[in-house]
């Protein structure tokens, strides 16, 4: 079983069948890009992995823990970091506070420990100078780099990205993709919903194409992109 395992997942919004019998095994360290038209279920799929969306049928496991409501969900969420399209930062907390919140609450770290770790992460994503500012004072690209640092703060084994560059002005896309590429090279397991084809092609180990709630194509980038 992979570090992320989806077994015959079905998900409905009312009568609408959003995910149709999806099975996927994601190996440790694998970088998987999920592509497909708007409304095909990409975001729903990755949101089921940390149970931000409930699913009705099938099983999802992260690191062999079943993703379901209850005490195990805390363990799953420690292991799974998420980066959102619209950053989802707390506007009334500084950058540093946004990042230390999780480790203090979820990991039970001391404030001092959490701040040391946060500063390291902010160095890594290149925004250490901004740490005492509020998110609203930052550019979109900077905010998303905070979002990535926050997702890393709990030392997750899996990172989920839901169109991390779609809300950015074009000139900021590159700086965020560079950070994601650096992370991919460090061996963290990643699932990335994106419209950045070039990035997917060069960075992903595997491409998954979705259409109308189904996986319609999957394989190594060189196979997928060489098809006529
Ligand atoms: P994608 O990420 O590929 O654009 P989504 O996973 O966001 O697709 O959505 C898949 C389908 O499910 C779409 O048709 C969308 O309208 C529908 N959908 C998403 N969220 C909800 C919701 N909360 N309630 C009802 N329908 C939803
Ligand atoms: P948009 O979604 O309009 O392209 P961004 O994603 O670039 O905006 O920015 C997200 C938020 O950050 C917006 O509320 C925007 O007003 C703010 N913002 C963007 N760039 C700056 C900047 N250079 N200085 C201050 N605030 C900014």
Your description of this structure?
The two termini are 33 Å apart. A six-stranded mixed sheet has the order 6-7-8-3-9-10, with helices on both faces. Strands 2-1-4-5 form a four-stranded antiparallel sheet, with helices on one face. It is built from eight helices and ten strands. The protein is an alpha/beta fold. Strand 7, helix 6 (170-185) and strand 8 form a beta-alpha-beta unit. The protein is 36% helix and 26% strand. The model has no long low-confidence stretch (mean pLDDT 95). Helix 3 (95-105) packs across helix 4, helix 3 packs parallel to helix 5 (140-152) and helix 4 (111-124) packs across helix 5. The chain is globular, with a radius of gyration of 17 Å. It has helices at 42-49, 72-79, 95-105, 111-124, 140-152, 170-185, 197-203, 221-226; strands at 4-13, 16-26, 31-35, 57-62, 65-66, 80-83, 158-162, 189-193, 206-211, 214-219. The protein binds adenosine-5'-diphosphate (2 copies). The site of one adenosine-5'-diphosphate has 6 residues, from loops.
